[in-house]
Amino acid sequence: MTVQSFEKGFNDKLDKELTIEPRDWMPDDYRKTLIRQISQHAHSEIVGMLPEGNWITRAPSLRRKAVLLAKVQDEGGHGLYLYSAAETLGITRDEMFDQLHTGKAKYSSIFNYPTTTWADMGAIGWLVDGAAIMNQVPLCRTSYGPYARAMVRVCKEESFHQRQGFEIMLTLAKGTEQQKKMAQDALNRWWWPSIMMFGPADDNSPNSEMSMRYRIKRFTNDELRQKFVDVTVEQTRILGLEVPDKDLKWNEERGHYDYGKINWDEFWAVVKGNGPCNKERLEARKTAWENGAWVRDAAMAHSQKRKERSSKKEAA
Amino acid sequence: MSQQTVNKAEWPLWEVFIRSKAGLDHKHAGSLHAADAQMAMENARDVYTRRMEGVSIWVVESKYVHASDPGEADSMYEPANDKIYRHPTFYDLPDELKHM
Fold first, then answer.
1. What whole-number distance in Å separates Cα of residue A97 and Cα of residue A109?
2. Any chain A CB within 8 A of the CB of B65?
3. In a 3-state reduction of DSSP, which class is residue A7?
4. How many CB atoms lie within 10 A of CB A209?
5. How many Cα atoms within 13 Å fall on the side-chain side of residue A144?
6. Which residues of A119-228 form beta strands (DSSP E)?
7. Which of A150, A222, A224, B82 is most buried, most CB within 10 Å of its CB?
């Protein structure tokens, strides 16, 4: 078979909405794009444990603490599903960690913002997980089988993350004046970073076109962002809070909310490493990896020793 | 392989199969890294059954799985292609025939 006929087989599968599986032939740029996207998605889950981990020991009740712990544990699990999906494309786990630690691979910029009050746990669950779900639901039908299956699992688990966040916001919003202020302050700080989570605008998104063609992405950044704004503005009403955007207005003609100008300078500054917590987050990951090295080595040595011992016993 | 390189290597990859409830088959759930079978089992519990998704777990080191070649799928499954008489619907029988 020639490369052309392999490529035709691949394109036929995409046209028929069939999934591509690890051992199927695929073009190099399909493989590269997927490795980049899936590994960065995995890194986001793992780094995403840090801002919330900050509040586990200070949760206001045992119930909130158990819930937050379960959520952060889920995120660890989601990272693991995604790392193994990426590994089916021929990159090793250690290579991915190395790319994260050296800054070659990115993770979602949202996690470079600090979590300064308990209300941030509410805003993150509601807005950040809400935006993530908006992004992830279409990925359940992405063209690469292992990624799609990982996303089905992630989406099933993620729904509670958003609901618990909204519950925190609702409790604060219906609480004392001070609690309500705290909720509003969290919304003010997380709103814009959350709508930036969908990535650059369509006319400035270099990878989008190829990802759409390969059916890795099913909707553009701006389409998903609009959908998120539309549903979230309605949810804000239930909380009785205010979206920090004076240009936000229902557009009868479009059937969507118009929203204000996004500060793309801030977005790119954080992507390039100059957000409030970039250094701290990366440092935390590197330290955990380096401090865990002896444990990983010891576990391997132990397993090796046991194997040798049992093969000696068999020989005797 | 020297002891040194063994220790510096990644933990091996394992495939995880889960029986979701009594009476059903084990089904592939995903994969994970672990130093040995016991750790693979414990990690599988933590990664794949956080919501009571299973009553039984199998773990198999991935290197022991042999997979068919998708490039040969056509010839591999071709023998079954023209044997529709293996299906009950192939047979043309009168409607009044019952219990069959």
1. 17
2. no
3. helix
4. 12
5. 29
6. none
7. A150
